[in-house]
Specification:
Length: 182
């Protein structure tokens, strides 16, 4: 498969972003290529287009399947597996957020919960527990907020994002009104 310079630039950028999203460069390039391909892509096409080994493609496919970002498709009369995005861009983004929460936030929250429950042995531990409690509460709030966002329809999410900084302005106005009313 031959990519135009624009598409190649996008796919390579997805590789660079892969580590920030929680997976390696090759896996990032693979999902980028699968997303911008109009038709499902075979493992051979992935290997040839990205100039990577079939073994690397196989490991990348397993990784993308564990993130639930791709789905296998079959073409009648062809024995090869082909890969396509497992839903819309919104679906993929939601899955990445969900997987990152499971892999990063949940273990941290578990550790913090058990640390907070322990009785502090000294002043240093007591202070540390107070800070851990603050971190726990912040992560709990972020997790709850992210969960609520995941349950919104793409249309509502788009509207919320368009509101952007306007929400902050409304909250500032509310604070001013409350202060002036007292």
């Amino acid at each position: 498969m031959l990519l135009s310079p624009k598409l190649e630039s996008f796919v390579m950028h997805c590789g660079e972003m892969g580590s920030r999203w929680g997976f390696n460069r090759t896996v990032g390039q693979m999902i980028g290529l699968i997303i911008v391909s109009e038709n499902p892509v075979s493992a051979n096409e992935l290997a040839e287009t990205l100039n990577i080994s079939r073994g690397n493609v196989s490991m990348g496919i397993k990784e993308l399947q564990s993130w639930r970002l791709i789905q296998v498709q079959h073409i009648p009369g062809d024995r090869k597996d082909y890969y396509a995005p497992a839903g819309s861009i919104w679906d993929l983004a939601t899955r990445v957020f969900e997987e990152r929460r499971k892999r990063e936030m949940d273990p941290t929250l578990s550790l913090l919960r058990s640390s907070i429950l322990d009785q502090p042995a000294n002043q240093q531990e007591e202070y540390a527990q107070e800070k851990m409690h603050e971190i726990h509460d912040l992560l709990e709030s972020v997790t709850l907020w992210a969960s609520e966002l995941q349950n919104m329809s793409p249309e509502k999410l788009k509207t919320l994002m368009k509101l952007g900084a306007g929400v902050g302005k409304v909250l500032d106005m509310k604070d001013k009104l409350l202060r002036s009313g007292n």
